[in-house]
Amino acid sequence: MAAFTYISGPDDFLVSRLANQHWNRLCEGVEDDFSKEIISGHAGKVEDVERAVNSFRDASQTIGLFGGRRVVWLKGVNFLADNPTGRAEATQTFCQDLQELLSTIDPNEVGVLITASPVDRRKRFPKWLEKESDYFPAGGMDAKGKGIETLVAVLKEECASLEVVMGQEATDLLINKVNGNSRLLIEETRKMATYLGEPGAEITAKLVEELVPNFGDGDFFEAAEAFFSRDLNWTIDALRRHFFAGNDARPIIASLQNRNRLLIQLKALVDGGEIQAGPRGIAKGSFEAAAAKYADYYDGLEEKSGFNVFTQNLWYMGKLMGTAKLPSLKRLIDHQLEFIRAFEEIIERSDEQEEILRNMAIRCLVGD
């Protein structure tokens, strides 16, 4: 039996969601509320790390007022991340103190739950926590788009509890629209289930498009989706809806440029035989081999970026390519020039944004 339970992951909402289930189980049989203690592990500076560790020491070593078993939750630890506080030498010392404390825990006397997000799993202490604890990874999508399968699993679980059905197309679109945010994913699903109002109803891609706004600065605007589907009528309709809502043209242009930038790289790799793509997406082996081969050309672009296709989620790249034949490399480059032209025109005629983007779409898509 492990002395304590440890839950971590890149998504704090999913960590908290899973942790609440374990906390409820840990508290079973503990009737005295004074024997249940939750300590914040959030630290903005080194002094906060010291406070959290000292508070945990007091909570885990203090004998309960009425005797019996106690439970302690060190919640929301963020000093295990790769950030200035997490890298501080003093923080490493406090982590060593915490490790020594945890090594002396008797689970029969005190139940301990530790939750952390985000976590730099390369560090010694997080590795020790995973090895010595009853460890549960919460999953979630990280900054590079990895871990999307966790979001799909969470969405299926939520749909089952709400007694609604959601197909793959609607699932992909919803995850894109909420920009991989798990909390928004759950809330928007509940909203649509409430809107449908009957068990067994289906949440379709069309419903997602109508009811779910685009969150954050992601590449998931409807107009961009329509444009790269090569559907001129849909693109013009999407532009009309975008501007009717009082939105600006520049986010659409940025989204178009970002996607097109990725497609240029993907097209070059496909034409060069570097990657293989099929109905199920891009072959992982060929994608990783190409990433290693061209790593030197992307020096300094290791974070998620539209300028480096290899920092992107493989599933999303397959979705971006679609099943239809990609436009020629020349046409994709022409698109990029058209986006620049549209941006320059908007600077000169800012009150004609919809007309400028509509004309740009016509120039790009007529004849497809």
Summary keywords:
Helicase, Ruva Protein, domain 3, two-stranded parallel sheet, Rossmann fold, five-stranded parallel beta sheet
How would you describe this structure to a colleague?
The protein has 368 residues and is α/β, with parallel strands linked by helices. It folds into 3 domains: 5-137, Rossmann fold, CATH 3.40.50.300; 148-216, Helicase, Ruva Protein, domain 3, CATH 1.10.8; 225-365, no CATH class. 54% of the residues lie in helices and 10% in strands. It is built from 16 helices and 9 strands. It has helices at 12-26, 46-61, 84-87, 89-103, 124-132, 148-162, 168-177, 182-196, 205-211, 222-228, 232-244, 250-271, 284-293, 314-321, 329-348, 353-365, and strands spanning 5-8, 36-40, 70-77, 110-116, 134-137, 165-166, 202-203, 277-278, 281-282. A 5-stranded parallel sheet has the order 2-3-4-1-5, with helices on both faces. The chain has a two-stranded parallel ribbon with strand order 6-7. Helix 7 (168-177) packs parallel to helix 9 (205-211). It is elongated and about 80 Å long. The N and C termini lie far apart (64 Å). The model has no long low-confidence stretch (mean pLDDT 87).
Low-confidence regions:
none
Overall number of structural domains: 3
| Content-based structural category | alpha/beta
Helical percentage: 40-55%
What shape does the CA trace take? elongated
Strand order of the largest sheet: 2-3-4-1-5
Largest sheet entry: 5 strands, parallel
Mean of residue pLDDT?
87
Rg from alpha-carbon coordinates:
25 Å
- Strand content is 5-15%
